[in-house]
Amino acid sequence: xxxxxxxxxxxxxxxxxxxxxxxxxxxxxxxxxxxxxxxxxxxxxxxxxxxxxxxxxxxxxxxxxxxxxxxxxxxxxxxxxxxxxxxxxxxxxxxxxxxxxxxxxxxxxxxxxxxxxxxxxxxxxxxxxxxxxxxxxxxxxxxxxxxxxxxxxxxxxxxxxxxxxxxxxxxxxxxxxxxxxxxxxxxxxxxxxxxxxxxxxxxxxxxxxxxxxxxxxxxxxxxxxxxxxxxxxxxxxxxxxxxxxxxxxxxxx
Length: 253
Known about the structure:
With 253 residues, the protein is α/β, with parallel strands linked by helices. It is built from nine helices and eleven strands. The protein has one domain: NAD(P)-binding Rossmann-like Domain (Rossmann fold). It has helices at 11-22, 34-42, 58-68, 93-121, 142-165, 183-187, 198-210, 220-229, 234-244; strands at residues 2-6, 26-31, 48-52, 75-78, 125-129, 170-174, 179-180, 189-191, 196-197, 215-216, 245-247. The protein starts with a strand and ends in a 6-residue tail after the last strand.
């Protein structure tokens, strides 16, 4: 049994790697920071293959697939991604396009390529690490929310296609709220909400994936928030989200 995990150097990806290793899965872990991947390898008792690649580059996404396509992978975990706080007219366009490349294009490419392989074997799991943002619009974190909407809805559509085709391949979307990771540091902002630990999110996500759940939302407060958001006007929802998300720095910087 073998799992491929992108964005495995920290946060949810790292903790998914540890959790799957405890269950006996060999690992292929992918990220830019080799030393962090080596630390994971040192701390687990399963076979670990390290792949150091920056999936911002589309060519590297295809390169990754070519490197591992013969590894007989059972689980694909798409996790690499980042966010960027700020008003849309003031955030850096280059950084936003990089976010789209990583948060959307890398997920899309790997999901499609591995889904084809899994279909041929008629087995396999795909877990796309999305966000509760995938069901919302996010002022002050606008592009990030948009990318997570794309992947969440894509995952849902593929799930329905697989169900009608009666194929033994399952796809899930892990949609947590704020998680205690490096997200805020990279995105230069923070949430006015309590964060869940990445280890709890990782365990919950993998357990529910194996139960073949489509939408996986850790934490009752997030579940309730998403439920009640259905019944309030869009403008009120946007106003609430605007206050939840803040920049670490003033908009003038």
